[in-house]
Amino acid sequence: MPTNANPPSFKQLEYFVTIASHSNFRRAAEELRVSQPALTTQIQALEATLGIPLFERSRAGTLLTPEGRELLEQARQLILGMREFTNYAELIAQGHQSTYKLGVPPTLGPYLLPNVLPALHSRYHKLKLYVREGPPRQLLQGLTDGAFDIAIVPLPVNRDDIAVEPLFTEPLKFVVPADHRLAGKSQVMPSQLRGEKVLTLEEHHHFHHQVQEICQGLGAHLQRDYEGTSLDTLRQMVVMGLGVAFLPGLYVHSEMHNPEALHVSEIKSKPIRRQHGLVWRASAPARRFYRGLAADLREIVQDRLGDVVTVDS
User: Fold this and answer.
1) Could you tell me which residue ranges the HTH lysR-type domain spans (predicted)?
2) Secondary structure (DSSP) of 258-272
3) Mean of per-residue pLDDT scores for the chain
């Protein structure tokens, strides 16, 4: 039976969920910025309140007990609900003065945000965005868990719990070394890519799978032996003659002002594109603000990058 009549505190539930996500007290304490003894004390108090053990420590790490597994998802939902309650209170009390956590993919954020954030800040002087990069799958999971408030991710996203506002469609450019047989052509026939060795990013990047689908459609070969850790390393591998590549239009616009060692072209009659959208939890209290934010982003992108991407209507 529980030894404490008081309900669990929000802090205790947050500690419980954080430990469960890391399966490790030390790493959880580092993320929460508390000492490990203080964390242990709070979990022991929570277990005493509930009258059940939540964790089992072993050589393999910190494991959830069966009882802990049963309670974990509900604890996550309670934490998310409390955060949304707090955000809603801030919206009512202060307007849009909160700090919002924005997630972006590493193949987009560095080449998009510098072009749009200054103009966005001029429209919302008190708006603060805490930007973190991550793969789209991680960003969507972060929305569910409350780690992010909004994210810009590739579309489509077909989930009932996620609201989507399309932003723009970005072309993918075909890039070859300067001494390649296709260099110098502004447009390349799809048939000319058959058998070409195409480089891309590592498999955990969403961009990897986009390029994989392109290769399958064109009869090109995806090079699995040489994969880039970033768009910059991918570009350098093309320069060194390890293969050809597809690079996002915003990256080309931002980083390749004088590409003497590379040649950029289009695929004739078969434009290759990727679409991006702003997403958030469908239940978010600030969802009306997020829709307005998406409209502002489309307007800014059209003004600043309309010659590079196609803004969605």
Assistant:
1) 8-65
2) S-TTEEEEEETT---
3) 90
Please give the model's pTM, rounded to 2 decimal places. 0.72
In angstroms, the CA 70 to CA 67 distance is 5
- What does the buried/exposed string (b/e) look like for 183-192 if buried means 16 or more CB atoms within 10 Å of the residue's CB? eebeebeeeb
CA pair distance 170, 201, nearest whole angstrom:
18
- Topology of domain 99-313, CATH: D-Maltodextrin-Binding Protein; domain 2 (3.40.190)
Instruction: Considering the chain, tell me which residue range(s) the CATH 1.10.10.10 domain(s) occupy.
Output: 10-88
User: Where exactly does CATH 3.40.190.290 map onto the chain?
Assistant: 99-313
Quote the pLDDT of residue 1: 47
Confidence band, pLDDT 50/70/90 cuts, at residue 125: confident
Length of the chain: 313
User: How far, CA to CA in Å, does 144 sit from each of 81, 135, 151, 242, 280?
Assistant: 11, 15, 11, 40, 9
Alpha-carbon span 29 to 16, nearest angstrom: 11
Structure tokens given for 180: 């390649």
CB atoms inside a 10 Å sphere around CB 132: 15
Both structure tokens of 35: 């000492």
Q: Please give the average per-residue pLDDT across 86-111, as a whole number.
A: 80
Using CA atoms, how far apart are residues 102 and 177, in angstroms rounded to an integer? 36
Look at residue 176 and give its three-state secondary structure: strand
CATH architecture of 10-88: Orthogonal Bundle (1.10)
SS3 195: coil
